[in-house]
Amino acid sequence: MKNLRISFIFLASITAASGASAQTLDWQALETLKPNTWISVVTQKRTECSFQSAVSDKLYCRTIPENWLTYYSLGWHEVKQKDLVFNRAEIREMHILPEDDSQGPFAMMLAAGGGGGWDSNGQTNGFAGVKIGGPYSVDLQYDRIQGHNGFSTEGSAVLPLFRFPRFQENKKGKFIKIFAEPGVGYRAGDGPFGGYSSAKAMAVLLSDKSTDWAAPYIEYQRRFPFDSPLQGDNRLTFGWMIAFCIHCGID
């Protein structure tokens, strides 16, 4: 019970972390706004796009798909930008987004890693696998638990929380970005588990100097079997990731 409380308190606390605030725009400010500035436009829904131009009653903007399946199926360089037109009367709010490509989720990521851990009885385990996704990910892993081989598949949301150090306009360098990954999975094979829920936290070493990111990462995971939540395990993953940010390619 203690491990269960600690895991959920940890996940809740990092999820509460907040990002940088955005600058509010009015229609007059659009006249001095540089083309290709990333903005947020709120009508009946919220849209992030690259500002192109504005006239007395219309705003012209450009966006790219934020669905990682689009990048995976078409290829990064085949994804087409989409031109949007907003009527002034329909716009409720406008904000300038931070000029920081590390903001927001990954458009696409491919990772390989492995590691080990311990279960509630103090027995160790080992595993290796791959991760593919973007705002959502799928993990495929081969493992050995309590002397039994198995295979697991797991789906998770990949929620960006914060980076350290914080983004600075005139200072480029390496930084660590933290993600929360709540998910569910299933382990097939001999030994424990079956269906389970999962709480993960991932730290990735990235750089402001490149948009094609290849980076080491470390991930902590606590798994809770559906049939016996207190008999789960703790795992540490070390690996290497190639990732693409959401806003890359809009210059």
Explain what you see:
The protein has helices at about 1-15, 70-75; strands at about 25, 40, 45-55, 60-65, 80-85, 95, 105-120, 125-135, 135-145, 150-155, 160-165, 175-190, 195-205, 210-225, 235-245. The protein has about 250 residues and is mostly beta strands. The protein folds into two domains: about 1-10 and about 105-245, Porin, CATH 2.40.160; about 25-95, SH3 type barrels, CATH 2.30.30. An eight-stranded antiparallel barrel has the order 7-8-9-10-12-13-14-15.
- The CATH class of the largest domain turns out to be Mainly Beta
Distance between the termini: 51 Å
**Widest sheet: strand order?**
7-8-9-10-12-13-14-15
CATH level-3 fold name of the largest domain:
Porin
Number of domains: 2
Discrete helix count: 2
Q: Quick one: how many beta strands?
A: 15
Quick take:
With 251 residues, the protein is mostly beta strands.
Keyword list:
mainly beta, 2 helices, six-stranded antiparallel sheet, 251 residues, elongated
What is the topological layout?
Blueprint: H1 2-15, E1 23-24, E2 38-42, E3 46-54, E4 58-63, H2 68-74, E5 82-87, E6 93-96, E7 106-119, E8 124-133, E9 136-145, E10 148-157, E11 159-164, E12 174-189, E13 195-207, E14 212-225, E15 233-245
Antiparallel strand pairs: 1-6, 2-3, 2-6, 3-4, 4-5, 7-8, 7-15, 8-9, 9-10, 10-12, 11-12, 12-13, 13-14, 14-15
